[in-house]
Amino acid sequence: GQQVMQIPQYQHVQEGEDFTTYCNSSTTLSNIQWYKQRPGGHPVFLIQLVKSGEVKKQKRLTFQFGEAKKNSSLHITATQTTDVGTYFCAGRRIIQGAQKLVFGQGTRLTINP
Amino acid sequence: DVKVTQSSRYLVKRTGEKVFLECVQDMDHENMFWYRQDPGLGLRLIYFSYDVKMKEKGDIPEGYSVSREKKERFSLILESASTNQTSMYLCASSPLRLRGYGYTFGSGTRLTVV
Fold first, then answer.
1. Do A98 and B43 touch (CB under 8 A)?
2. A62 touches chain B (CB under 8 A)
3. Using CB atoms within 10 A as the burial measure, which of A27, A83, A89, B47 is most buried?
4. At A65, which CATH number?
5. Across the interface, which of A1, A31, A42 has its CB nearest the CB of B105?
6. Does the beta-carbon distance from B42 to A104 stay under 8 Å?
7. What is the pLDDT along chain A (113 residues), one digit of tens a residue?
8. Containing domain of residue A13, as a range?
9. Closest CA to A100 of B105, B94, B81, B83
10. CA B56/CA B68 separation, integer angstroms
């Protein structure tokens, strides 16, 4: 079945450093979504990318979707302690007419203040 | 504010018990999902439903069943709980066509089977 791999599994940075997490799929994705889960919380939707080569920004967060629509990345510039959490990518597939998301394993970001 | 509500935040059950996890959404979403979350494995889909009384197996349905008698409610049932079902269970919902919107997750139920 379709697999979505995400690296790294863990990342520890100093506050103010940049952070990037990468997502790779074994098959072409129709779109990809990104979620953030704060410690003790539940995943919260951040953004969806649909077009090949698409780049979207949310303040210090930059999301990219690869040209082949098989990979994606999330880059955070100048991390802050509020960025702590686990970031998940999720690729979309359709089964029996229903949209299902296949999640990556997540990247857990910790920050030294 | 849209909500997905899971009935229990924490549950402790004994091996062999039948366990019900309840999920209710107030957004009139067609799709509902049950995931389990384990360290290093991310979110894995157990079952999903795209309509009342409809259900489809996800990637790890063994040992679980579901019920969707009303549009707003999706229940996960552990027929005979086992220790390897100790996990965080997350319910989510979405409209039939995402239109740029992601899943809305509940706060999760941390189940411990002893």
1. no
2. no
3. A89
4. 2.60.40.10
5. A42
6. yes
7. 558 999 999 999 999 999 999 999 988 888 999 999 999 999 999 999 999 999 999 999 999 999 999 999 999 999 999 999 999 999 987 666 666 788 999 999 999 98
8. 4-112
9. B94
10. 11
